[in-house]
Design a protein that fits this description.
single chain, 364 residues, alpha/beta, Rossmann fold, 12-stranded mixed β-sheet, 12 helices, globular, disordered C terminus
């Protein structure tokens, strides 16, 4: 893999100075061959079980993207880093998430199948994630859900995501629509502002003792319990974050206490995801998240973004998402968090002046 990467870079540099059309075509063909050889497939990413497998796959993905993602390649070069010298994960540079607002972050020359966009707020530039093979996203969230919750067909999936349904390009809506379909349950479905219908559906689920997950944007869940109260201890409430300017921001403990009281549950589950990632982390309570084997969280020093933290201190959240094979798998987010010794992590908030986002970013 490393040899392929070096040859690929050599060919790219040669292309800049070679004007012979015949040689140019040969070089392009060679580039495509090397790119195909360098790119790890789903059979290498989604079967990861050990740290050694993750490390090997991560370095392969890094070398592939350092050669094929023009934005990432220029970023690495701008840092004065020679990608060929990277031998361990700790030395991999993370692309600032802001690049998704102004650049086409692509490691594939295939046609774009779907463009996911962030919600943002009026007047703010939104992020765009160009996805050339949406099957990577589908496999990631399907396998991720199964890892954390088991067989999807055992659940009724209810969704209260009005602000997401009212716009185009939401990766969350894409995922939830697919989960609803995969559940093969006629009672699964979306609810907009029809809270009365949702209430009666929840009562039906409770009476029939059906395992149920209600996925909701934060403000909509609060709006629901303002008018309806239910005591449904077996219900899984999964909040995806986001007040969308509809309500004042709340600390996580206060929010979860209100939701627990309103739905009669003992804990609130959460999903941590964003437009720029094709994988999700999940929390089954207390705001502590875990991630699938093809994903990692690393915290960085807020004063030195190239330095990773190892002592459990709060820092910026860097994400490795190997499902992002066709864009960039190494993202420096604008989220603040704390990483624990067992690999779990907590989201503490956002950097000052960072855009308000639609993912699970509650103030702690």
């Amino acid at each position: 893999m490393k040899l392929c990467y070096c040859l690929f870079n050599y060919i790219q540099e040669t292309l800049k100075y070679d004007n012979c059309l015949c040689r140019l075509n040969k070089y392009i063909a060679a580039c495509l061959i090397f790119a195909a050889e360098m790119k790890p497939g789903k059979d290498k990413i989604f079967i990861i079980k050990t740290e050694a497998q993750f490390n090997a796959a991560t370095l392969d993905v890094f070398r592939y993207q350092a050669a094929t993602c023009e934005v990432y390649r220029r970023f690495i070069k701008g840092l004065g880093i020679d990608a060929a010298t990277i031998e361990q994960i700790e030395d991999i540079p993370f692309l600032p998430i802001e690049f998704f607002k102004s650049q086409q972050v692509l490691s594939s020359n295939g046609p774009v199948q779907v463009t996911f966009s962030s919600s943002g707020t009026t007047g703010l530039t939104t992020s765009r994630h160009l996805v050339t093979d949406v099957s990577w996203y589908e496999e990631s969230f399907r396998k991720g859900f199964e890892l954390f919750y088991g067989d999807i067909t055992q659940y009724t999936i209810l969704a209260l995501l009005p602000s997401y349904l009212e716009r185009e390009g939401s990766s969350l809506i894409y995922m939830v629509e697919d989960l609803i379909k995969q559940s093969s349950n006629p009672d699964s479905g979306f609810f907009l502002y029809n809270h009365d219908e949702l209430y009666h559906q929840l009562k039906k689920q409770q009476q029939n003792n059906k395992p149920t997950i209600l996925i909701g944007v934060t403000y909509a869940l609060l709006d629901f319990i303002d008018s309806y109260q239910i005591d449904f201890p077996q219900l899984i409430i999964m909040e995806t974050g986001g007040m969308k300017g509809r309500r004042k921001e709340m600390i996580r403990e206060e929010l979860h206490a209100q939701l627990c009281a309103g739905f009669g549950v003992g804990a609130i589950h959460s999903e941590y995801g964003m437009t720029e990632l094709l994988s999700q982390a999940y929390s089954n309570g207390d705001g502590i998240f875990n991630y699938p084997p093809w994903m990692r969280i690393i915290t960085r020093d807020t004063n030195d973004p190239l330095t990773a933290l190892t002592d459990g201190k709060a820092g910026g959240i860097n994400v490795i998402d190997l499902a992002n094979i066709n864009s960039c798998s190494f993202i420096a987010t604008q989220d603040l968090g704390r990483l624990y010794a067992d690999g779990s992590f907590e989201v503490l908030g956002r950097f000052d002046n960072a855009d308000i986002r639609g993912c699970n970013l509650l103030i702690a």
